[in-house]
Design a protein that fits this description.
30 strands; 5% helix; mainly beta; 32% strand; single chain; four-stranded antiparallel beta sheet; Methylamine Dehydrogenase, Chain H
């Protein structure tokens, strides 16, 4: 009997010992807090999540030291992101680009068209592809009488009508415009867009739904001519005829004639970036009457300075779908900066430095585009050391947040630089020429038009997966491209 009682007591003791709380106090359970950066796969070494000034969002000590409190929810939620590039099969020079509502992408290819003309390369199947063999790129400029090659090739797609505008400058003497309303299947005869009073150089063209009598949109171009500021001309009939060139700034402005990409907004305004009229800082210039007169709106460059490089004129601007205006420029430290305006350039937010938390010796060739309200993408090239120049896309999905998260991706892998020329980002450089380009498609994916100078081929850099710059839209994951597409 005693042995039975002892066995029962021993069994009870063993059971209680194995259960928390039977003997003594409960053991404390440590629960790790989840992080918004806990993705289902590792973060790529060419992707960075950061705040203004290159503060690594994953470095808790750095975030704490910078006294940063960020609300990473809603539109400011981080997405696992990666990037790549996709070749167009031909070289490019000063690559401008356009995207139609049929999801076709267009880029210029200098001198590779019929009779030595500028080719207009159409890439189909690229935006929604699931396999690299799904996309193809072909020259669709097949005019009856091709316009001879130009010094400055330029292509632009009207975001409201899908009209593809081919805009060529010929040896500083004149410019011609051709267009296609059917994805490049046919082209209009060339029209002359030239004012004989001035040389024509460094042209840029855009459209906006400013009321026009003979076309749904008004077209404006600006050039560097015989004036101390850019000269601009307008077309109210879709490019058939053009007004005499007028001052693209206040008439007494001494900004210099070189201008960054011209952009039109949904409200009909036109914008462009340029050095300030007083010779200091950068300004955005705005026209509210179809390009006939322009006002100056200085950017907040007092703390950033301006680039002391060859392409010093590069202050880029882009209006989003709610007519907020987004601007980007390179500062005196050769780093990229960003500011926005919610009142059409009347006032600007404090500038933020948008380079990622990786060692960059310098950046250049800025470009900017926007999607829905407060959603913006930046593009530029940067030297990661030893004159290894890479392509970068930065994305902000909530620019109006107190602490916007910046997701930056490098479109080329380390070991596959786009150029290795000394100081490439500060000078005219290979296929980059004077400028590069970026746009956001209807699905919210940014497309970066640039050149892989090592192999002399035009490429599109983009996110293979990541955040959408259109509210309520999910970006479809694409296969990784890279050197295999060249």
């Amino acid at each position: 009997m005693q042995q039975a009682k002892f066995a029962i007591a021993l069994a009870v003791l063993m059971i209680c010992t194995s259960l928390s709380g039977c003997l003594g106090s409960e053991e404390e359970v440590v629960t790790e807090e989840s992080s918004p950066f806990d993705f289902d796969r590792p973060i790529s070494n060419t992707t960075w999540y950061h705040y203004s000034g290159g503060i690594d969002a994953l470095d808790e000590a750095a975030v704490l030291a910078a006294n940063i409190t960020a609300n990473l929810t809603g539109e400011n939620t981080p997405f696992w992101s990666s990037a790549s590039y996709y070749g167009i099969g031909l070289s490019t020079f000063e690559p401008t680009m356009g995207i139609t509502s049929d999801d076709n992408l267009y880029m210029t290819s200098w001198g590779n068209g019929a009779a030595g003309s500028t080719a207009i390369v159409q890439c189909t199947g690229l935006i929604e592809m699931t396999n690299l063999s799904d996309y193809s790129c072909n020259d669709v400029y097949d005019a009856i009488v091709p316009v001879p090659n130009s010094n400055d090739p330029y292509v632009y797609v009207d975001k409201w009508t899908d009209r593809i505008m081919k805009f060529d400058m010929h040896a500083l003497l004149g410019m011609t415009v051709e267009w296609s309303d059917n994805e490049g299947a046919s082209w209009s005869p060339p029209t002359v867009a030239t004012d004989i009073r001035s040389v024509q150089d460094h042209q840029t063209i855009t459209s906006a739904p400013y009321p026009a009598a003979l076309h749904p949109t008004t077209w404006v171009f600006c050039i560097n001519g015989n004036a101390p500021h850019p000269l601009c001309s307008s077309s109210f009939d879709g490019g058939n005829t053009w007004t005499p060139e007028v001052s693209g700034a206040p008439v007494d402005c001494q900004s210099g004639g070189l201008t960054a990409h011209l952009e039109g907004g949904p409200n009909g305004n036109f914008y462009r970036g340029n050095p300030g009229c007083n010779g200091e800082g950068y300004s955005i210039y705005k026209s509210t009457n179809g390009g006939l007169t322009w006002s100056e709106h200085p950017l907040p460059t007092e703390t950033t300075g301006t680039a002391d490089t060859w392409n010093f004129e590069e202050a880029q601007v882009y209006p989003d779908e709610d007519d907020n205006v987004h601007a980007m420029w390179i500062g005196l430290d050769n780093m990229p900066y960003y500011s926005y305006s919610t009142d059409e350039g009347g006032s600007w937010s404090d500038p933020i430095m948008i380079a990622p938390p990786t060692e960059l010796n310098g950046t250049g060739f800025p470009a900017i585009a926007a999607g829905d309200s407060g959603m913006v993408a930046f593009a530029y090239i940067g030297d990661s050391g030893g004159d290894n120049w890479n392509g970068y896309i930065g994305m902000i999905t909530d620019a109006f947040s107190d602490m916007p998260l910046i997701t930056t991706v490098q479109v080329n892998e380390f070991g596959d630089p786009l150029d290795i020329t000394e100081d490439c980002g500060y000078n005219r450089c290979g296929g980059f020429g004077d400028f590069i380009d970026i746009l956001v498609d209807a699905h919210g994916r940014p497309w970066f038009g640039l050149s892989h100078n090592i192999v002399d081929q035009g490429i599109y850099g983009t996110i293979s997966v990541g955040p959408s710059l259109r509210s309520g839209v999910t970006v479809q994951e694409m296969p990784i491209g890279g050197p295999s597409t060249l």
